[in-house]
Design brief:
Layout lengths: L1 E4 L1 H7 L9 E3 L9 E3 L20 E2 L6 E5 L3 E11 L5 E7 L4 E9 L6 E10 L1 E7 L6 E8 L2 E2 L15 E9 L5 E20 L1 H14 L5 E4 L9 E6 L6 E2 L6 E9 L3
Parallel strand pairs: 1-9
Antiparallel strand pairs: 2-12, 2-15, 3-5, 4-11, 5-10, 6-9, 6-11, 7-8, 7-10, 13-14, 14-18, 15-16, 16-18, 17-18
Length: 265
């Protein structure tokens, strides 16, 4: 589970006073009517990517270089994937300005099949596409988002469990009649954490954060609590309870708690 940052964006972030605040990827240009792929296996069309379910997959029919293209005019600074098999493949992101394709996220070898955020400089284009190279098995992806990241206003500090470590299991243990341990079966695995956001300025919450809270009532999202310091601690998450802000201080500062569940690889 990683956040990969393009070189151009890394240089742009360098002078920033705080480039380690959390990020949330919920904005998504991809729809069922604007996504295509170079190749699709029978029963695994590219349109499955428009469904955020981790059960519904796009799968290529071949292992040669693949493009997954989003034909949508808009602005994006990230592309994220979940439930995929692109470990050890080479991926990059390209944008089309109406006449030329240009690389906005340079070639990167993914280190695992966990959720990943490919982060690049904000780019306006008429199309975006994910390029997949050097696959040894037919590439497949269940979830793909491309759009603009929500950058949290404050860093997340003590008392937070990174989503990758919030492991929760439901198990059934077996015992014999005389009490001997016979083993146990894992019935369910999941991830969970709680995110406490405090001292949010009233205008920022109303202008920026509340749109996410509304969208997250029904839509899952990608989440990284410290994208620079801990780039591998990324989750594909959803709210498990209503997120309700409160006035925290007399000056109007606000706080909100996000209870999250996450996809367990």
């Amino acid at each position: 589970m990683s956040v990969y940052i393009s070189q151009a964006l890394a240089l742009a972030l360098a002078p920033t006073t705080d480039n380690d605040a959390g990020i949330i990827g919920y904005d998504n240009l991809l729809t069922i009517g604007n996504v295509t792929a170079t190749s699709s296996a029978t029963n695994y069309p590219a349109t499955n990517l428009a469904n955020p379910s981790t059960v519904s997959l796009w799968r290529s029919a071949v292992t040669t270089t693949q493009y997954v293209t989003i034909n949508a005019t808009g602005t994006a600074d990230y592309l994220a994937i979940a439930r995929h098999n692109l470990s050890a493949t080479t991926v990059s992101v390209e944008a089309y300005d109406g006449s030329t394709w240009s690389t906005v996220f340079a070639e990167q070898v993914l280190g695992s099949n966990a959720p990943a955020i490919l982060r690049f400089a904000s780019t306006s284009a008429s199309q975006f596409r994910l390029k997949i190279q050097n696959a040894t098995v037919a590439p497949e992806i269940a979830v793909l988002y491309v759009g603009e990241l929500l950058e949290l206003q404050r860093r997340i500090y003590v008392g937070h469990t990174p989503i990758t470590y919030g492991r929760q299991t439901t198990v059934q243990s077996g015992r014999s009649e005389n009490g001997n341990y016979l083993g146990r079966v894992i019935l369910q695995e999941r991830l969970a954490t709680s995110v406490q956001l405090e001292n949010l300025t009233p205008n920022w919450y109303r202008d920026t954060m509340d749109a996410f809270v509304i969208a997250a009532k029904s839509q899952p999202f990608f989440y990284s609590w410290r994208p620079t310091t801990y780039p591998e601690e990324v989750g594909f998450c959803w709210l498990t309870s209503d997120a309700v802000p409160v006035n925290q201080r007399a000056n109007g500062m606000m706080s909100i708690s996000l209870e999250l569940g996450g996809f367990a690889l």
